[in-house]
Design goal:
Helix content is 17%, strand content 35%. It is of the alpha+beta class. It folds into 2 domains: 107 residues, Rieske [2Fe-2S] iron-sulphur domain (Rieske Iron-sulfur Protein, 3-layer Sandwich); 169 residues, Naphthalene 1,2-dioxygenase Alpha Subunit, Chain A, domain 1, CATH 3.90.380. A hairpin with a 3-residue loop joins strand 15 and strand 16. The longest helix has 28 residues. The chain is globular. The structure holds FE2/S2 (inorganic) cluster and fe (ii) ion.
């Protein structure tokens, strides 16, 4: 059985996905969150460990993220006071001598690193098959940041990711001086690597830059830019559902030793990336997914990217199912009030340090 939507021939991929950034949830705090088309609760226990669990209390269904309290290393349901531990086991019923062993709250595997709280999503709830790599530069003081940006995009996570291998669009959507040249694209299991050269416009003229990016599954990537100044972009993309994706960008610049220089360089870097992201939005929102795209010789490695990506769909159509599928164009919905959205017209609500959700 293949899980798809009307809009795309695929559903949500499995992997590690950011569900928050570390400062978003303090010790003792609970928070309602919604990703993977599921209501969930995020909470941090008194030892500082973050937990991500299904929202609904197995007793009578209260949402643990709306009024739930943290008590030590347990979460307390706001409805009748039942307590659940970090594994989702019922640890106390305040008006009963015995706990209920059958009352379990599904608990997502969680990793907190690189400034993000990542949860592992798998549609059949299978255990993680890798861990997100720890990036030393996020915490070692060599880099300044992060400057944060987040936005929810009306497109599938796979469609957004395809942007990186699409070298030609940089010229036409983002107005860069020349089409970037992809000099390496390789994958190894859940990871993929891309190196490209790109000319950046600066107030002092065009500068040659190098971009190296590593994807750690579909939800996490680390992008390093060198040329003008060394910058690091930690990106996290998370399916809200099969047709909506939350993007989080954390921008860092190599510490130049002066707070105000760091800040202005960081700001310029972030603004350029956010400008490009804003330009991409109407394309992602309104484009169709083309199953068999008509490509030029010098287009980027789209089909390699799609092949790498297909491993993350636990319920991906088999080769026979794909061959039997006659539909090859999956258009976006018709939004009559949004017919005049075009790239570069500033349709993103750009906001630092907060969520655009
Ligand atoms: S619904 Fe949670 S304790 Fe009753
Ligand atoms: Fe783009």
């Amino acid at each position: 059985m293949t899980s798809t939507t009307d809009r795309y021939p695929f559903s949500m991929p499995s992997g590690w996905f950011a569900v928050a950034e570390s400062p978003d949830v303090e010790v003792g705090q609970t928070k309602a969150i919604y990703y993977f088309a599921s209501h969930m609760v995020l909470w941090r226990d008194e030892e500082g460990t973050a937990h991500v669990q299904d929202a609904y209390c197995p007793h009578l269904g209260a949402h643990l993220g709306h009024g739930g309290l943290v008590d030590g290393c347990n979460i307390v349901c706001p409805f009748h006071g039942w307590k659940f531990d970090g594994e989702g086991c019922n640890s106390e019923i305040p008006y009963s001598d015995r706990t209920n062993k059958k009352a379990r709250v599904y608990t997502y595997p969680v990793l907190e690193r690189n400034g993000f709280i990542y949860a592992w999503y798998h549609p059949a709830r299978q255990a993680p098959t890798w861990e997100v790599e720890e990036i030393d530069d996020v915490a070692n003081g060599n880099y300044y940041g992060p400057k944060r940006f987040t936005h929810v995009v009306e497109a599938a996570i796979q469609e957004m990711g395809e942007n990186a291998v699409d070298s030609a669009h940089f010229r036409y959507v983002h107005n860069v001086a020349e089409v970037p040249e992809i000099i390496r694209y390789e994958s190894d299991g859940h990871r993929s690597y891309m190196e490209s050269n790109q000319k950046f416009p600066t107030p002092r003229g065009v500068v040659n830059g190098e971009i190296n990016s590593t994807a750690d599954g579909p939800g996490v990537s680390v992008v390093r830019f060198a040329g003008i100044v060394d910058t690091l972009l930690m990106t996290a993309t998370t399916p809200v559902d099969a047709e909506h994706t939350q993007t989080r960008f954390n921008f860092y610049v190599r510490n130049l030793g002066d707070e105000s220089v760091n800040s202005s360089v960081g700001e310029a870097f972030a603004n350029e990336v956010i400008k490009q992201f804003t330009e991409d939005l109407p394309i992602w929102t309104h484009k169709a997914h083309i199953v068999r795209p008509a490509l030029a010789d010098s287009d980027g490695p789209f089909m390699k990217y799609r092949k790498w990506y297909s491993q993350f769909y636990a319920d991906h159509p088999s080769a026979e199912e794909q061959a039997a599928e006659e539909r090859t164009v999956y258009p976006a919905p018709y939004w009559p009030d949004r017919m005049d959205e075009v790239p570069g017209k500033g349709t993103a609500s750009v906001k630092y340090g907060g969520s655009a959700l």
